[in-house]
User: Which sequence fits this backbone?
């Protein structure tokens, strides 16, 4: 088992551990008997609840830890206020008190909404994350961003709220549908681009082992990605500075995701976002020539999409980007690479680059239907 500490620089007491290894679900009753609560609301979605939730709750009860399973229907379209409200009502009805905690068992959707429930219930009760998708293990379970989507855009309501512990059991990746595994790899590729060219090359080399779910290869991916994300978020808990580099691919990606009506997986939309933002970076002189092609080649090797889906309209994409949280003073700004392994920016320059509407239209227009 590998343990990675996420030190929250501005608030030491909010620091927490991420444990990564095989068979960790079975060790949860022992881990949780030691804290942080007397009673657990195990929040999961309809798929993961059946696959792992029922057994986990039975084992918790069997080892004397009070727990109950609360599920909601799986799917990004359920990451809503309504789900937050229904889950919160369940905690009220079950009379959860301040000695209770939330255990989020599932992918990023479960983590985001269950974390937001934990952040707001009784003004905040502790929560433990047990990520079950590759994406949740390497990305959404680290950094304390919680929240829900509204029709106008993703993650527009939420809170920064750090978990007390994250436990990633690699064995659960065995049941993850193939497209979900690949979608998670988009975030791993992003980590290579923003921080580690050697890791980017390793992902290319290890492609066959990763897609056949070799657990040694998957552990390497989870550990290195967690290290990179933890390092970036720990110095910038509230996303005021360098954390912006994690947004590479996401301003365009979120717009593609939202305008697809969530027909694309988050990681697929981010792959398209990275491919397009890397082209923008080359066109405005931020990135070395060849960077966009290198990124596109690795995304393609994993079978990730590079172009906006048929029927995506430039105006819709621009409107969706205009609603993004990262927009400052009406100007769209992007976190862009200088080359694979290094992002543009520093404390003086800032971490994002303003992009003209003309350039956005040119690159998005080439990848979408104009009109
Ligand atoms: N908070 C953050 O910092 C952050 C970062 C990145 C992404 N996100 C959010 O994460 C969400 C995407 O997360 P996701 O990709 O994990 O999607 P998801 O939570 O919807 O999970 C994908 C699907 O896989 C199923 N599933 C999960 N684990 C499984 C397993 N082990 N075996 C079989 N099926 C399993 C789920 O039921 C679901 O149907 C988006 O809403 C995104 O905005 C948040
Ligand atoms: Zn993402």
Assistant:
């Amino acid at each position: 088992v590998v343990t990675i500490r996420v030190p929250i620089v501005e608030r030491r007491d909010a620091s927490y551990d991420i444990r990564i290894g095989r068979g960790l679900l079975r060790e949860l009753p022992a881990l949780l008997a030691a804290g942080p609560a007397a009673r657990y609301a195990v929040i999961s979605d309809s798929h993961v609840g059946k696959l792992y939730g029922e057994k986990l709750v039975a084992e918790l009860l069997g080892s004397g830890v009070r727990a109950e399973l609360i599920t909601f229907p799986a799917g990004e379209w359920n990451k809503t206020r309504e789900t937050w409200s229904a889950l919160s009502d369940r905690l009220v009805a079950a009379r959860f008190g301040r000695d209770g905690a939330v255990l989020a068992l599932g992918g990023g959707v479960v983590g985001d909404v269950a974390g937001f429930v934990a952040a707001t219930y009784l003004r905040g009760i502790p929560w433990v994350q047990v990520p079950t998708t590759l994406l949740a293990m390497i990305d959404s379970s680290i950094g304390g961003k919680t929240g829900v989507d509204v029709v106008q855009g993703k993650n527009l309501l939420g809170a920064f709220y750090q978990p007390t512990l994250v436990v990633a059991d690699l064995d659960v990746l065995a049941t993850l549908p193939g497209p979900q595994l690949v979608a998670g790899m988009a975030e791993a590729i992003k980590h290579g681009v923003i921080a580690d060219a050697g890791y980017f090359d390793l992902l290319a080399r290890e492609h066959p082992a990763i897609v056949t779910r070799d657990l040694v290869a998957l552990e390497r991916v989870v550990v290195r990605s967690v290290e990179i994300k933890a390092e970036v978020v720990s110095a910038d808990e509230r996303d005021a500075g360098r954390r912006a580099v994690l947004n590479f691919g996401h301003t365009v990606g979120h717009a593609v995701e939202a305008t697809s009506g969530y027909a694309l997986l988050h990681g697929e939309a981010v792959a398209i976002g990275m491919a397009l933002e890397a082209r923008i970076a080359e066109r405005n002189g931020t990135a070395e020539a060849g960077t966009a092609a290198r990124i596109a080649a690795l995304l393609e090797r994993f079978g990730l999409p590079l172009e906006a889906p048929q029927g995506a309209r430039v105006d819709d994409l621009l409107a969706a980007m205009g609603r993004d949280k990262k927009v400052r003073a009406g100007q769209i700004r992007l976190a862009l690479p200088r080359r694979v392994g290094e992002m543009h920016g520093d404390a003086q320059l800032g971490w994002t680059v303003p992009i003209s509407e003309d350039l956005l239209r040119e690159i998005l227009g080439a990848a979408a239907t104009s009109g």
The chain has a mean pLDDT of 93. Residues 44 and 354 are 39 Å apart (CA to CA).
